[in-house]
Recover the amino acids of this structure.
């Protein structure tokens, strides 16, 4: 077991770390790795465009995960109510999750299309805009439009986890709270929220890790544009590897992205531990 | 303090009636136990008193006030649940003080009330703990403390001891009893365990199939069961029943081949088919001249022995103090004290009285 884990995760990780201290082309004849020490990391950290990309990725991560949490919790609360067709609606929740990101990104690109997109048509018909706009072509807007697509794709994982948690809260707790004099808000605050907090935190940790290493949705929807305003940190890993074929510095970029992710995970783990303490 | 008056209360779910017109008067300060088999509607009735279920028709009054339309929180009741229903993220102190906090009481006043009740229930060292750090018995005590702190008009208990082991159940039972002696607030207690009902209640309401079968003190139910259901439900081991026929002079009944004298009421008819009931503890073994009894099994429990066997084809149980001197497969002779025999109309199931 140990050997399998070491082979599957240990070897590639060690290889990446080794590469990050070398200058080595990704492909070609006579591939040779030259020791460069910390030079690759210096390049990465001195790259202002990369630092801006990290900030952009953090913005994307925080906004999309917060939106997913809020919408996910609200949808879970709705789906926890009794109504006709509840099983069907619950099954529908899985749909965005089951869809490959590339497909959903293409779908949203079509929805945002400046000439025949449904989004433009909708806003025009309800009178919010006067003319069709290029939602993914405007530097200030594109990032937020991608966030909407990302939230649509992933809020359901939060909703599913929270819904599962809601179903484990004993009915007697709500009844005890009702008899104790709690209204709807006090019941949510004192029974529902503590009951879903731990599973919700786990869902948010997973979503944060996923969101920070985002690549595919931007690659399909904007390719990092317009004017690099949607170029996220992982684009640098991709560009260094496959556009400039520099395996060494690409590894350094990758390791910096991993390090930032680890910081985010550590913060969450601390929060979770604090919750667990009586 | 107030009593509870239940007047022709019915409950239906989507046209399916599960309570068929319940009438009961629970006196101020009385401890009343609702007992019956699973699905008899006892918990539903309790939840209707609590305001957690609506009343389909009829009225429920607490004191002089009809509470059908009064919200649960405004009924001035406290409820102890089967699974304790303690808030898992709150300490014992916060759990107990939650209702006072919601009622807008100031923190020092809440602390005083909680500490007073906690001291009484022996919970003072546990106030800072969370429910998951407590044993089953301690959780049960906190649940009762939470109810006591509110100083309600009526206590409602929904099978509060069913999650405890046998030993703890006996201990908690006596604690609830002594608690009620010190705080004589009206209490309605639901259980399916007739021993719990007998030991706790001032009066018992026996329910079956959404109807009240009999209301009375534990002694009345045990000694004068109104029908076959109550006779079979109250008492452990259960009462024995044998088919019989009254003699022409209605002073005796034929049991197997043996004639046993009975006290039949005046309206009993000669040769009337009856069900003869007698409790296992009223059976004794005799040397000869009794009813022929074939022993099938002997269970020794320490203080008693339960001897099961057959009179003709009917199975009965005898409870003998100490060790029984009979063995499985042996034939014996038994006698039943005529004064302890109950007669029931076989057709209606009602006691002949």
């Amino acid at each position: 077991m140990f050997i399998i884990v070491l082979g599957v995760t240990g070897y590639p990780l060690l290889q990446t770390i080794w590469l990050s201290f070398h200058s080595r082309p990704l492909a070609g004849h006579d591939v040779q790795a030259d020791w460069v020490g910390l030079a690759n990391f210096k390049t990465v950290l001195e790259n202002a465009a990369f630092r801006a990309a990290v900030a952009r990725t953090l913005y994307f991560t925080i906004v999309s995960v917060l939106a997913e949490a809020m919408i996910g919790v609200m949808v879970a609360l709705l789906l926890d109510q009794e109504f006709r067709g509840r099983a069907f609606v619950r099954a529908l929740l899985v749909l965005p999750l089951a869809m490959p990101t590339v497909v959903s990104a293409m779908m949203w690109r079509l929805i945002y299309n400046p000439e025949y997109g449904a989004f433009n048509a909708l806003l025009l018909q309800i009178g919010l805009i006067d003319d069709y706009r290029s939602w993914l072509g405007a530097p200030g807007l594109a990032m937020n439009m991608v966030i909407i697509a990302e939230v649509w794709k992933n809020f359901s994982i939060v909703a599913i986890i929270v819904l599962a948690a809601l179903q484990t809260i004993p009915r007697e707790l709500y009844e005890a709270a009702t008899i104790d004099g709690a209204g709807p808000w006090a019941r949510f605050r004192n029974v529902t929220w503590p009951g879903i907090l731990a599973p919700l935190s786990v869902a948010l940790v997973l979503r944060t890790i996923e969101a920070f290493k985002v690549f595919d949705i931007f690659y399909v929807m904007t390719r990092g544009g317009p004017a690099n305003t949607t170029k996220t940190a992982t684009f640098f890993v991709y560009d260094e590897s496959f556009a400039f074929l520099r395996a060494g510095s690409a590894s350094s970029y990758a390791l910096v992205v991993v390090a930032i992710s680890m910081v985010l995970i550590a913060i969450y783990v601390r929060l979770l531990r604090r919750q667990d303490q009586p | 303090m107030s009593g509870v008056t239940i007047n022709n209360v019915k409950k239906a779910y989507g046209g399916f009636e599960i309570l068929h017109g319940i009438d009961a008067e629970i006196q101020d300060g009385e401890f009343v136990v609702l007992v019956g088999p699973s699905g008899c509607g006892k918990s539903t009735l309790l939840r209707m008193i609590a305001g957690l279920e609506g009343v389909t028709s009829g009225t429920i009054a607490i004191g002089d006030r009809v509470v059908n339309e009064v919200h649960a929180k405004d009924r001035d009741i406290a409820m102890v649940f089967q699974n304790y229903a303690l808030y898992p993220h709150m300490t014992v102190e916060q759990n107990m003080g939650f209702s006072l906090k919601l009622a807008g009481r100031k923190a020092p006043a809440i602390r005083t009330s909680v500490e007073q009740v906690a001291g009484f229930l022996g919970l003072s060292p546990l106030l800072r703990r969370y429910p998951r750090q407590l044993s089953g018995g301690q959780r049960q005590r906190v649940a009762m403390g939470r109810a006591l702190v509110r100083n309600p008009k009526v206590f409602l208990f929904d099978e509060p001891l069913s999650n405890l082991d046998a030993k703890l159940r006996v201990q908690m039972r006596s604690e609830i009893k002594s608690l009620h002696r010190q705080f004589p607030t009206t209490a309605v207690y639901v259980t399916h365990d007739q021993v719990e009902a007998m030991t706790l209640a001032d009066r018992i309401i026996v329910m079956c199939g959404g109807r009240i079968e009999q209301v009375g003190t534990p002694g009345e139910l045990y000694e004068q069961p109104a029908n076959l259901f109550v006779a079979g439900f109250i008492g452990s081991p259960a009462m024995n029943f044998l088919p019989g026929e009254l003699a022409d002079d209605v002073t005796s009944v034929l049991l197997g081949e043996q004639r046993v004298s009975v006290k039949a009421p005046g309206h009993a008819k000669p040769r009337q088919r009856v069900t003869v009931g007698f409790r296992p503890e009223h059976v004794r073994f005799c040397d000869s001249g009794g009813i022929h009894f074939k022993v099938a099994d002997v269970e020794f429990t320490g203080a008693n022995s339960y001897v099961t066997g057959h009179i003709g084809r009917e199975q009965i149980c005898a409870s003998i103090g100490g060790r029984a001197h009979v063995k499985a497969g042996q034939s014996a002779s038994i006698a039943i004290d005529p004064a302890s025999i109950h007669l029931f109309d076989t057709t209606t199931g009602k006691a002949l009285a």
